[in-house]
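Deviations from the work plan: none for this task. Representative record:
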Amino acid sequence: MMKSLDELAKIREQARKKVDIRDSKHGIKIVVGMDTCGISAGARPVLLELVAEVQKRNLNDVSVVQTGCIGVCRLEPMIEVYKEGEEKVTYVEITAEKARRIIEEHIVNGKIVDEYTIGAIE
Amino acid sequence: MELYRAHVLICGGTGCTSSGSQTLIHTFEKELKKQGIENEVKLVKTGCFGLCEAGPIVIVYPEGTFYSHIKVEDISRITEEHLLKGIIVKDLLYKDVIHEDQILPIDEIDFYKKQKRIALKNCGAINPENIEEYIAYDGYKALGKVLTEMTPEDVINTIKKSGLRGRGGGGFPSGIKWEFTYKAEGDIKYVACNADEGDPGAFMDRSVLEGDPHTVLEAMAIAGYAVGSNQGYIYIRAEYPIAVHRLEIAIKQAREYGLLGKNIFGTGFSFDVEIRLGAGAFVCGEETALLNSIEGKRGMPRPRPPFPAIKGLWGKPTLLNNVETYANITQIILNGPEWFASMGTEKSKGTKVFALGGKINNTGLVEIPMGTTLREVIYEIGGGIPNGKKFKAVQTGGPSGGCITAEYLDTPIDYDNLIELGSMMGSGGMIIMDEDNCMVDIARFFLDFTVDESCGKCPPCRIGTKRMLEILEKITSGKGELEDIDKLERLADSIKVSSLCGLGQTAPNPVLSTLRYFRHEYEAHVKEKRCPAGVCKDLLSYNVDSDLCKKCGICAKKCPEGCIDGIKGKEVYKIDTKKCIKCGACMDACPFKAISKK
Amino acid sequence: MIESVLTKENFDNLEQIIRENKHKKGALMPILNEAQKIFGCVPMEVQKKISENLDIPLAEIYGVVTFYSQFTLQPKGKYAIGVCLGTACYVKGAQQVVERIKRELNIEVGETTPDGKFTLDATRCIGACGLAPVMTVNDDVYGRLVEKDIPDIIKKY
């Protein structure tokens, strides 16, 4: 039983997180390569970690989407980060742990994690 | 907390449910389990997306991918390819989604681009059976604002300032209606919602109730606060089982959350809502008949005045609005009356929902700002007429409205313009007709409807419409005389001015408007005994073209009356037009198109 | 045929419904709606029962029952076929669909086949205009019909 407007606001906050995914976003897009090779290399835990982290931090303008094969199968799992007005950044051989760091440093603080990028590995 | 990386929205509106969306949901559940991703992907059954033609519809987020005409066998592909691997299944996409090799998100498709969704804001976006999703999209915020920051007068002034007019047909300014009820004297007052959507071909109210039931409940509570009422009634057609079911769930949830019931938000304001079912009487959409029906009587109209605002349910002041009108209220409160009044034309503000149907490519529900032209709706949003046929007329306002022809397609849609053209806004049915539709037959169809639905209380409607129908039947059966057309017009005029309620007063409109624009079709039926569109059976005859007939005998086999004679391989077949019942089976069966109707 | 629905069980259910709704304002309509569901019709015997319990004259109840098209005095066939004759369906050829069903079953609109299997009704808009023309057989919906589909649909039942 709800007895105040504050309670309504609280429920709204909570519920908002669950439906956020359905709004069109204009901010940052994180794309995870999820073809068979990506999945077998472990893309799924990466994807789930990204989604969890984005929700935990309330990053409303960040969307996590999947795509098919990004093309460099031996470096899977790969993710690409698109920020408006910036060059796309491609990270390779990503794990759940690395994903967390990318969110923290690149997405939140705007600092690219150079050591995971495709340029650093190749 | 539930954590999902993708949401799959499946339309659970009546249109898509009828084409099997429930089975799709079960199949999805199975497939997701099979792939082991049932905890990552959330299935959401929503209300109507509006594009019923493309149903069943499935939308996948976060990408906003729009799949149409989905069948059970497509689901394993969507699950395996898209949900597991992120590869969009291109051949299942809605046809307009791929634009210059790019896959467009749903809101950029032609059908949605020109729309402005206010009443339908949440339809297709939320799970209507989950109050939390409604709250997530600012649900019950307007009620909170009204109860804590506004006086009843403030609310009424806001509605008045917005310029909102009744969406049920008449277009009476809603704010003024609210004010009347507020000022009326009475110890008890009621708020009622007219969900007896009777116009055959309009289904926006049903879609709002199915897709976003809470918005109506919230608006009724706001109205209750404004006019001083603690009890609401929703009168809904029994023919809408899904809508009734979702309303029941919504009311239950709202009570559990304390958003209906006693002392809402601790402000001391109490309000509750009850559902009352209709039982299949069109006239109950008329406000006074509806009140009688809720009271448990025959649904016959009462003379007005007194208006329901003064003497309504059980003799008490009653505010009665239709579903779509209520669906605009929370948005007006939250965004301000100026925002609402900035849309539309001088005298018709905001948006209107139309149900596009008939001979049009994109059958479905569209919500457009008032002032959009008919051409934009029919050709840009509706995608034009199928099969390369020619547009003939658009019928608005259902049995109370009329037809509008091609030369008026650039008219901006609003209440006053449509009336000037001899039609009306009505509840928002918009039926498109092409060259194959006979306008005399359409007029007969509507009269047949009103005769059947006339409650019988007042003679002009009970007897007059019956006489009109008889004359129309005489004309469509080829026995019409020229003076019949004049008689029709005279009758129509007197029924209009002398009937008790809206049903009778508007019943002649379909005849008057078709006479206005298609008099030549009436004359062809009467003078030449010919139906130009080839619809009126009694004026048609089926014939075999002896040059095209290959003497195969298929037509004779198909004929249910055995009235086609000939000798297989030897003699051209002939139809005995006296015995022929004009069912058209032979014409459909003939592989050589040798049979034609004239 | 009527006798078969006037069972004790059905009357018990009706009594239960009357008890639940009796104190509501305007209780007659909700009770009649439920009675129609329970018995499949609202025959005189049922009306009498309601009249006694609600203390409303039978004549008045009969007036209400006969006013609304969803209340029937006779039970319907096992399968109720409803062809939507809303405008959208009519424009797209629902009339031909009705004609075909009439021919196939040899009954008129509103009638039941002699074996009690099918009842044919022309219904008001059921709101599935996107699928026009539409027919329903009990809870099954068939859309985008052409006349030729009819015999196969009927055969399914």
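The first helix of chain A runs from residue 5 to 19.
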